[in-house]
Write a structure and sequence with these properties.
The chain has 215 residues and is of the alpha/beta class. The chain has helices spanning 22-35, 51-60, 68-91, 102-111, 116-120, 139-144, 156-170, 188-208, and strands at residues 11-16, 39-44, 94-99, 127-128, 131-136, 179-183, 212-213. The protein binds 3'-deoxythymidine-5'-monophosphate (2DT) and magnesium ion (MG).
């Protein structure tokens, strides 16, 4: 008898604005995937638990100032240091849910004024999600959800620019087909259904295709 390899896992990225409910939806998605029989791992970016992640955390909490280009490359390095484990899991049949990924990496730095292509460059070659769920929330809804925390970037003017950059990035032909936009303004259960609808597309895609790399 020959053992058949399990089908590969699915790589799912959840992106969106602060307060759009990404982390809540990630948790619900992990649960639902498990109930559907998937082995699942959640990977948050930035991953603040690594050595590089510690530097990123001290930057985000304003404990240290780091030059814009340098912190940009550290965010990317934080993905590269975990890329191998993501590929290994996917190959072994484990679905990986990413809470933020290189899309946040590009838009937050580009929103500061760094060149878009410069920002995207270090991400080329990373594992490419089978599907990206973008949790969209309009300005008014975001404002209703209460004040920002105290971390860097949690100010309205930055958020407005980030929203614009995300819109631009969704039109980038290199990965335009991967996005599913979800209106995150509804109640949690309704949003979860919408997220699931997008994820099902990714499940379907992963059945017939190898894991790709960011081009
Ligand atoms: P959280 O609040 O989700 O922990 O994010 N960011 C994130 C970047 O500037 N570059 C990146 O590559 C990533 C993944 C977005 C903390 C902040 O870090 C920003 C918000
Ligand atoms: Mg935050």
């Amino acid at each position: 008898e020959t053992a058949t390899a399990p089908p590969r896992g699915i790589l799912i990225a959840i992106e969106g604005l602060d307060r759009a409910g990404k982390s809540t939806q990630c948790a619900l998605l992990v649960e639902r995937l498990q109930q559907s029989g998937h082995k699942v791992r959640l990977q948050k970016f930035p991953d603040r638990t690594t050595t590089i992640g510690t530097l990123i955390n001290s930057y985000l909490t304003s404990a240290t100032d780091i030059d814009d280009h340098t912190i940009h490359l550290l965010f990317s390095a934080n993905r590269w240091e975990l890329a191998h484990s993501i590929r290994t899991d996917i190959a072994a049949g484990v679905t990986v849910v990413l809470d933020r990924y290189m899309y946040s990496g590009v838009v937050f730095s580009a929103a500061k004024g760094l060149d878009y292509e410069y920002c995207r460059g270090p991400e080329v070659g990373l594992p490419r999600p089978d599907v990206i769920v973008f949790m969209d929330l309009d300005e008014g809804e975001a404002a209703k959800r209460g004040g920002f925390g105290e971390e860097r970037y949690e100010v309205p003017e930055v958020q407005r620019r980030v929203r614009e950059m995300f819109r631009m990035m969704r039109g980038d032909e290199r990965d335009a087909g991967d996005w599913g936009v979800v209106d995150a303004g509804a109640e949690v259960g309704v949003v979860a259904e919408r997220v699931w609808g997008v994820v099902e597309r990714g499940v379907e895609f992963a059945r017939g295709n190898e894991l790709r790399s960011i081009q």
